[in-house]
Amino acid sequence: MPTERVATVVGDLVDRVNDAIAKHEVTYDEYHAAMSYLIRLGEAGEWPLFLDVFFEHTVERLNQGEGGTIEGPYYVPGAPWLERPYVMPMREDEKGDSLILSGTVRATDGEPIPGAVLDMWQADADTNYSNIQEEPPPFNLRGKMTTDENGEFEVRTIVPPYYHLPRGGPMEELLNAAGWHDYRPGHLHFIVSADGYTPLTTQLYFEGDRYLDSDVASAVKPELILTLQKHDSPEEMEARGMKKPFFTTSHEFRLKPQTG
Ligand code: MBD
Ligand code: FE
Fold it and tell me: In terms of Cα–Cα distance, which of 216, 218, 221, 243 is closest to 232?
């Protein structure tokens, strides 16, 4: 990065931290507690969690804007390519309500994009991410799929219930110390990409979730909230080959043509 840019941004950051220290008359005890905290945060490997929860939303709004939101700390490359009909990799007894998500990937001008790639990941019903937490098998609820010739896709998964950040480490300690909750609304993560377009990183949420208005990661946007339709009649279940009631919903992703 150019020296001047580093000096400008880091200089402003240092000034602002010093302003806060002065404004709140921070004591030596507090200064040393903060130092020890930041060291422990690093030792626990929670810097990505801390930064994505508190700051990524601002970077995202500046660089991506409408239709996108933050990636968060738990994307893992190398998810398996799924085959039609798409079903997210899951355990035989995977907890949670079945969800059929359908949708279209379009260019900003409305043209559908065939062959667009959706790289999708989510937590399980107990808020565990595969390849991050111990419990789920590798790449559980992580998968890649493409849109068909009409730019459309459909995938079966589970509705992720509202979510809390991993507990037992420095991040939880800080939120507790400040009296803040550690919840996010339930969400599905995506990176959507296609040749000639800027990749879109986003998440989808669900109407009625109790944490839509107080996401600890400040990453909810109104255009990302889905409405679930419940299907519980024997006819609907039969038609879809589902043994239990299930939900459906849909979403349109919009990709910006790459410039230059
Ligand atoms: C998550 O699952 C997440 O999506 C974000 C943004 C932060 C922490 C955990
Ligand atoms: Fe997440």
Answer: 243
- Residues whose CB is under 5 A from ligand 2 (ion)? 72
CA distances from 258 to 2, 107, 119, 142 (A): 25, 10, 19, 27
Q: How far is it, in rounded angstroms, from Cα 49 to Cα 166?
A: 9
- Half-sphere CA count of 35, side-chain side, radius 13 A: 7
Would you place residue 260 in the very low, low, confident or very high pLDDT band (cuts 50, 70, 90)?
Answer: low
> What is the reported pLDDT for 233?
93
The per-residue pLDDT for range 212-234, each reduced to its tens digit, is: 999 999 999 999 999 999 999 99
* CA atoms of 248 and 31, how far apart (whole Å): 51
| Per-residue model confidence (pLDDT) at position 65 | 86
Residue nearest to ligand 1 atom 7, measured at CA = 72
pLDDT digits (tens, 9 = 90+) for 168-226: 999 999 999 999 999 999 999 999 999 999 999 999 999 999 999 999 999 999 999 99
Per-residue CA distances from 64 to 126, 202, 217 (Å): 30, 10, 16
Strand partners, 184: 163
Helix (H, G, I), strand (E, B) or coil at 173: helix
Specify the residue for token string 């062959």.
115
Question: Terminus-to-terminus CA distance in the chain, angstroms?
Answer: 22
3-state helix, strand, coil in the chain (%, to 5): 30, 25, 45
The answer, yes or no, to whether any atom of ligand 1 lies below 6 A from the CB of 73, is yes
